[in-house]
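Postdoc handover notes: sequence design on the structure in folder B. Input tokens:
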């Protein structure tokens, strides 16, 4: 350029338009330098960069690069990281904790040039969208324009039954262990927005979806919410909030719950269904206050258990639920929900409970949720409608039944032409059903294998959302052939723990104890007799201490006293989270920014709720990048030699990927995986985990030897708390075992000195493997 200004302008354009792949670049740093006001004067010294350290903060740059690969640190090496993921999947398969049944993983389907991986669904223009009374499309505009109170009034004034579609959350949580990826939801979002435009809501976030997104799907849960909100503007979004537990399995400081609800509302949630796993009102009040302060429509949920139509069922009678509903209404909720998490609500019970609630609360909307485990879900929802319910939950036919919600199509057809007509067009939801039938076939590796309804749910009371997860955990613990015993022990464990409502996290407590009882061949009498010495799952100890709240009727005694005394623990008094110090978000942001660079408020929240899961996700992302763009069939199914697929990494960029060969394992356990990427050979080294000795097979058994400490069940050692030479007391925790979501503290079997420690953190162990010897 003829002048410094002209030369600078040309250099900026060159930097923004250059395309470099395969190595890190300093493009953003150079642009930060060249656009700094001081540099643009042309008068700087050699200390310029030292005087302006902010120039090095490239993670915050927003330059409009010609090559999208350079525009963000997240995009750098994007293709390379995807290739690394495909190579690792080919060599090592999925980690066992993902829960994919390897026998159901099918070959990748070859795609011809121009052939899309997406499952077809018609454009939304083919749907005749119904209008509301004032001529506007969708229920959401009432909520946005009038607020929660006006929305509640509109629901009560509405002629006919309103529907909440749970397909995007609870249906796949119940049927497919919450493994549904965002892209399947996004693909059908525009059509859903048209076909279900007069629905009460789409239940699509919260519950287990938050941690599973990071833990297993390797996606950002906030991006899911915001992407779907943009694609579905007309239907209210509903989330499941676990009261004081937010979307976690423990209690958090109050400011975390409040900040979470505020961000959820800003990101797109309209309706907060707030529940507590023990119906503990103090925990409920925190969630209600947080959701209400955020500006959301607050639905106070009663976790339903027992049978109100059977007077022999004990403490969960009609008066119990009416008292609970009064407390919810007094707390300021906008609607009442009956949350029947196991499918125990029979038509008779639905009529009785809904009828009594309607009579006592004529102006409050009533929303009913159930699971179809026994096959009576549709009948129960029709009975609820006839008794005065305003809204019922259902899921699209292809994702309904079994442990999910009743069929949406069946509910719509059953109520058509009656005073409870839903106004939903069956012909419009037909293509949605076909879409979801095809999508479900992609997720066959996560099916539980359940082929029919199961009326024994009325005995064991396992929640629909836990059923598939519990079955998978049992497989991991080597208890597959004892599934019937686990269901029986689940019912027994529930009684041992005080006959409690069972939904996350209380359902986990009951499930953990049931599996522990089966693995250790224990019954109720042995549990009570040996309560002070048994190596109970940590969740059971936390429950008995009062860390998730107070159950209806109080804690079981003498079990609680013996468990706490044997561990030297004091009980928690009152609401568990009330005594927690406020979370320091500023400190957390500073620490995370130093580690990861570009950090948002949503990242800080994700870390506050699930610190280990968040770190694991970020570490995965640093190795494999954003795998959310990989088509599901390719994400789940390893390629074979000769397979060739078309991979679309963004809207206008695709790559042709062919797996050429997988080299034999080298001495250090490495295999070289060779691909062709648009005809160019790429060689990706991958460690073959099966070639590395880490199975723990052949370990010495503890047996009944004096001073031997063994494992109560198969799992992974996550903590070793002693070393050789340490003095220990009988009952003192010496190691921690993790088996799926259950962590168990392993106690010393005698007092003495540790003579030998034979495991390390990360070791896989089998039942009765020797861990430690004490003399």
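Designed sequence:
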């Amino acid at each position: 350029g003829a002048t410094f200004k002209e030369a600078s302008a040309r250099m900026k354009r060159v930097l923004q338009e250059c395309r470099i792949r395969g190595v890190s670049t300093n493009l953003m740093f150079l642009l930060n330098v060249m656009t700094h006001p001081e540099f643009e004067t042309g008068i700087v010294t050699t200390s310029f960069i030292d005087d302006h350290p902010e120039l090095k903060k490239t993670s915050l740059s927003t330059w409009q690069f010609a090559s999208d690969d350079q525009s963000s640190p997240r995009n750098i090496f994007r293709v390379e990281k995807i290739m690394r993921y495909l190579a690792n999947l080919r060599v090592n398969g999925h980690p066992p904790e993902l829960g994919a049944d390897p026998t159901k993983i099918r070959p990748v389907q070859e795609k011809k040039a121009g052939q899309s991986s997406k499952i077809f669904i018609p454009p939304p223009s083919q749907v005749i969208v119904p209008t509301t009374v004032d001529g506007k499309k969708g229920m959401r505009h009432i909520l946005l324009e009038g607020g929660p109170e006006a929305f509640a009034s509109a629901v009560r004034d509405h002629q006919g039954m309103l529907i909440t579609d749970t397909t995007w959350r609870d249906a796949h949580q119940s049927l497919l262990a919450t493994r549904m990826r965002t892209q399947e939801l996004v693909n059908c979002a525009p059509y859903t927005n048209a076909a279900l435009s007069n629905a009460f809501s789409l239940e699509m976030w919260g519950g287990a979806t938050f941690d599973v997104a990071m833990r297993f799907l390797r996606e950002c849960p906030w991006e899911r919410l915001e992407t779907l909100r943009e694609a579905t503007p007309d239907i209210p979004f509903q989330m499941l909030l676990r009261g004081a537990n937010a979307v976690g399995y423990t209690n958090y400081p109050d400011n975390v719950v409040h900040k979470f609800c505020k961000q959820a509302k800003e990101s797109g949630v309209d309706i907060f269904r707030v529940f507590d796993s023990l119906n503990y009102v103090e925990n409920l009040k925190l969630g209600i206050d947080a959701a209400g302060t955020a500006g959301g429509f607050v639905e106070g949920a009663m976790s339903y258990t027992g049978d109100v139509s059977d007077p022999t069922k004990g403490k969960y009678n009609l008066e119990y639920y009416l008292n609970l509903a009064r407390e919810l209404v007094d707390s300021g909720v906008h609607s009442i929900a009956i949350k029947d998490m196991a499918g125990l609500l029979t038509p008779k019970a639905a009529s009785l409970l809904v009828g009594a609630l309607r009579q006592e609360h004529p102006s409050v909307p009533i929303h009913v949720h159930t699971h179809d485990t026994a096959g009576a879900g549709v009948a129960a929802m029709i009975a609820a409608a006839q008794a005065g319910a305003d809204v019922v939950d259902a899921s699209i036919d292809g994702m309904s039944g079994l442990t999910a919600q009743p069929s949406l199509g069946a509910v719509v057809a059953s109520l058509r032409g009656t005073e409870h007509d839903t106004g939903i067009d069956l012909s419009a939801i037909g293509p949605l059903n076909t879409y979801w039938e095809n999508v479900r076939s992609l997720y066959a590796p996560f099916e539980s294998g359940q082929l029919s309804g199961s009326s024994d749910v009325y005995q064991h009371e396992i929640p629909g959302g836990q059923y598939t997860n519990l079955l998978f955990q049992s497989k991991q613990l080597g208890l597959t052939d004892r599934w019937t015993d686990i269901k029986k022990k689940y019912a027994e464990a529930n009684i041992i723990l005080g006959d409690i409502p069972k939904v996350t996290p209380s359902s986990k407590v009951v499930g953990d104890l049931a599996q522990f009882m089966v693995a250790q061949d224990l019954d109720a009498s042995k549990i009570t007799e040996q309560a002070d010495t048994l190596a109970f799952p940590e969740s059971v100890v936390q429950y008995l201490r009062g860390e998730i709240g107070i159950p209806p009727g109080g804690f079981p005694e003498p079990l609680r006293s013996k468990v706490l005394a044997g561990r030297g623990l004091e009980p928690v008094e009152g609401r568990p989270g009330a005594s927690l110090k406020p979370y320091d978000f500023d400190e957390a942001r500073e620490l995370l920014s130093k580690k990861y660079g570009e950090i948002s408020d949503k990242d800080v929240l994700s870390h506050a709720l699930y610190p280990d899961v968040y770190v694991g996700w970020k570490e995965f992302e640093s190795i494999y990048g954003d795998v959310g763009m990989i088509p599901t069939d390719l994400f789940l199914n390893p390629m074979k030699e000769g397979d060739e697929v078309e991979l679309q990494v963004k809207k206008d960029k695709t790559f042709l990927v062919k797996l050429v060969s997988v080299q034999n394992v080298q001495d250090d356990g490495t295999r070289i995986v060779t691909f062709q990427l648009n005809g160019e050979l790429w060689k990706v080294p991958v460690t073959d985990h099966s070639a590395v000795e880490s199975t723990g097979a052949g370990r010495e058994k503890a047996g009944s030897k004096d001073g031997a400490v063994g494992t109560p069940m198969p799992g992974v050692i996550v903590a070793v708390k002693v070393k050789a030479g340490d003095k220990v007391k009988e009952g003192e925790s010496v190691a921690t075992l993790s088996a799926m979501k259950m962590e168990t503290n392993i106690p010393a079997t005698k007092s003495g000195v540790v003579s030998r420690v034979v495991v390390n953190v990360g070791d896989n162990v089998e039942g009765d493997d020797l861990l430690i010897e004490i003399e």
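Context for whoever picks this up: The longest strand covers residues 653-662. Don't rerun without checking with the PI first.
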